[in-house]
Automatic annotation (TrEMBL):
Subcellular location: Mitochondrion inner membrane
Membrane topology of this protein: Single-pass membrane protein
Chief location of this protein within or outside the cell: mitochondrion
Keywords in alphabetical order: Electron transport, Membrane, Mitochondrion, Mitochondrion inner membrane, Respiratory chain, Transmembrane, Transmembrane helix, Transport
The name this protein goes by in its record: NADH dehydrogenase [ubiquinone] 1 alpha subcomplex subunit 13
Cellular compartments per GO CC: mitochondrial inner membrane; respiratory chain complex I
Originating organism: Xylaria multiplex
Functional note: Complex I functions in the transfer of electrons from NADH to the respiratory chain. Accessory subunit of the mitochondrial membrane respiratory chain NADH dehydrogenase (Complex I), that is believed not to be involved in catalysis.
Length: 121
């Protein structure tokens, strides 16, 4: 019995790889696209930081310019409180003088032995 030999011209090639079409973009295209997106993002970040710095500077200068106004308001309030305290003290002084004419005043003195001596004046 003769040995089986390959056919003349050989066997047909065996396809062991899958020929699937590449889906999506090539990696170089993705790299360029991501670079563009990130460049734009960093540009906008820089613009935002500049804007925040400008707003902070403006806020600081507005506070600096408001300090004299706030100081004057505080001074007016202190003067008003001082005048109100003086008026209240004057009222209490008049009331206490009137009360001292009517009621006797108790005077206390500390004795040498530590006891308290009370006298009516």
């Amino acid at each position: 019995m003769p040995q089986d030999m390959p056919p003349v011209g050989g066997y047909a090639p065996v396809q062991y790889k899958r020929n699937l079409p590449a889906s999506g973009f090539r990696p170089g295209t993705w790299l360029v696209a991501m670079g563009v997106v990130m460049t734009y993002g960093f540009y906008k970040l820089g613009q935002g930081i500049k804007e925040q710095n400008e707003l902070a500077r403006e806020k600081m200068w507005s506070r600096i310019h408001l300090i004299p106004l706030l100081q004057a308001e505080e001074d007016r309030d202190l003067v008003r409180r001082h005048l109100a305290d003086q008026a209240r003290e004057k009222e209490l002084l008049v009331a206490s003088r009137m009360a001292s004419k009517v009621e006797p005043v108790l005077e206390t003195a500390l004795e040498t032995d530590g006891s308290i001596k009370t006298t009516i004046v």
